[in-house]
Amino acid sequence: MNALIGKKRGMTQIWREDGTRVPVTVIEVAPNKITAIKTLERDGYEAVQLGYGTRRAKTVAKPQLGVFSRLGLEQPCRYLREVRGAVGELAVGQDLSVDMFAVGGLVDVIGTSKGKGFAGTIKRHGFSRGPVSHGSQNVRRPGSIGMNRYPHRVFAGKKMAGRMGNEQVTVKGLEIVAVDAEAGQMLVKGPVPGANGGLLMIRRSHKEA
Question: Mind listing the pLDDT tens digit for each residue in 162-189?
Fold first, then answer.
């Protein structure tokens, strides 16, 4: 197993023994419960379904509530995420904690970035502005978006004004600075996507190999 579910708790800074300052993000990683296992023979692929957090039983549909009751959980899991990969010796009902990650290792953190609302091309894509003197009307406008005659349309994916943020972002190769299994927390170097309290997926990075 190479991934866990956690939550972003904020940023702080620590100092190494040589006196260098390191900005870190605090990620809360409570024990993840294995709620289901996908096998190659039955499902056509191998994967593990992880459960994280708790919610009130009255807010869960009865079929899902029966699944959690069979696992012996008093409260259903709030979040469920499926992680593909070799299952190995893992079993349904098993708990996975943050101690599976080691200090000095590298992880990829996946989260949802902060939503910025509707934004123009300068803020959204880094366009340069136009002249601001002599009656110019092209200060922050995007300019021409198409060709003269061919192909008589605007290509899909053209960089234009629109909704900015609120999308899945993956930050790769973040160094693990500290791991506290008792508190269920880990510190990674640098920022991670999303606001404080946002859900994150932490997976072992391929760059580590």
Answer: 999 999 999 999 999 999 999 999 999 9
Q: E strands within 39-103?
A: 47-52, 79-84, 95-96
Query: Can you name the residues that pair with 32 across neighbouring β-strands?
Result: 96
Q: Could you give the angle at the alpha carbon of 79 between the alpha carbons of 73 and 81, nearest 5°?
A: 105
Residue spans per domain, the chain:
31-95
* Inter-residue contact 109 to 189 (CB < 8 Å): no
**Prediction pTM value:** 0.85
Report whether pLDDT(209) > 60: no
CATH fold, domain 31-95, is Double Stranded RNA Binding Domain (3.30.160)
The rounded distance, in Å, linking the Cα atoms of 115 and 160 is: 17
Report the 10 Å Cβ neighbour count for 60.
17
